[in-house]
Amino acid sequence: MRVKVLLFAGLREAAARPELELELPEGATVEELLTALEKERPRLSRLLPLVKVAVNRRVARKGTEIRPGDEVALIPPVGGG
Amino acid sequence: MVRITEEPIDLEEVASALSSPEVGAALTFVGTVRGIEDGERISYLEYEAYEEMAKEELLAICREIKARWPTVQRVVFVHRIGRVGVGEAAVAIGVSAPHREETFPALAYAVDRLKETVPIWKKEVGEKGARWKPAK
After folding, report:
1. A46 lies in some domain
2. Could you count the other beta carbons within 10 Å of the beta carbon of residue B91?
3. Cβ A78–B118 below 8 Å, yes or no?
4. Could you tell me the CATH number of the domain that includes residue A61?
5. Fold of B2-133
6. Sequence-ordered alpha helix ranges (H) in A4-79
7. Contact state of A8 with B56 under an 8 Å Cβ cutoff
8. What are the residue boundaries of the structural domains of chain B, listed by start?
9. Per the structure, how many domains does chain A have?
10. Candidate from A6, A8, A58 with C-beta closest to B121
């Protein structure tokens, strides 16, 4: 399945785009998504250890399965206020 | 009231959103942009948000506050995004209740939670360059 991944802040700048697409097997988990990103986007790998993954606008656990059409976003350490 | 905006924050609007006939105490925190950070002169901050999720997280904080301090009447979050100049307000957070006692801890909680869970990022742009700064 094709999964669209939203990028913000330093990740968006490192990727030079606000979103990217990844090909993942059906039922891939958040952890598998991160592993695939690390391989396919080496420029992002330095930033990934601190990143949380949101699925449908909620922070997801590593074991959460991603379904076709889910809204997936990488959340680097936040800094509001 | 929860709002993410590119416009300057209107504190009178925050005050009126906090008021109601039951309210006897309204407390507002205003976070402004410091012109000096670790000895470096700062030009401006640039804020970015994952807006839909940020609004949902802010509404979740409002619910947490009302569960912990049931007498709290109103909770207001207004956060700017885009470029915010030195001295300008980047965020205003308000809490109101019939009496003052619960407003102080509720407001402190609101500020802390904003910095923990809400997907908003800030880039500090100063004389030594630009960097994304996580909350301390």
Report:
1. yes
2. 22
3. yes
4. 3.10.20.30
5. Aldehyde Oxidoreductase; domain 3 (3.90.1170)
6. 9-15, 30-40, 42-45
7. no
8. 2-133
9. 1
10. A8
B14 at the A interface (CB within 8 A)? no
For residue A37, being part of any structural domain is answered with yes
Chain A environment of B112 (Cβ under 8 Å): none
In a domain, A10, yes or no: yes
Per-residue pLDDT tens digits for A6-54: 999 999 999 999 999 999 999 999 999 999 999 988 888 889 999 999 9
The Cα–Cα gap between B59 and B80 comes to 16
Q: Taking the mean position of all CA atoms in its chain, how far away is CA B117? A: 12
Chain B residues inside the 8 Å CB shell of A79: 115, 120-122, 132-135
Residues 6+ apart with CB under 8 A from B4: B49, B51, B54, B55, B78, B79, B80, B81, B120
d(CA B86, CA B81): 14
Domain assignment of residue A41, given as a range: 2-75
B2-16 pLDDT per residue, tens? 999 999 999 999 999
A80 is a domain residue: no
The ipTM assigned to this model is 0.94
Give the closest-approach CA distance of B134 to chain A in angstroms.
Answer: 4
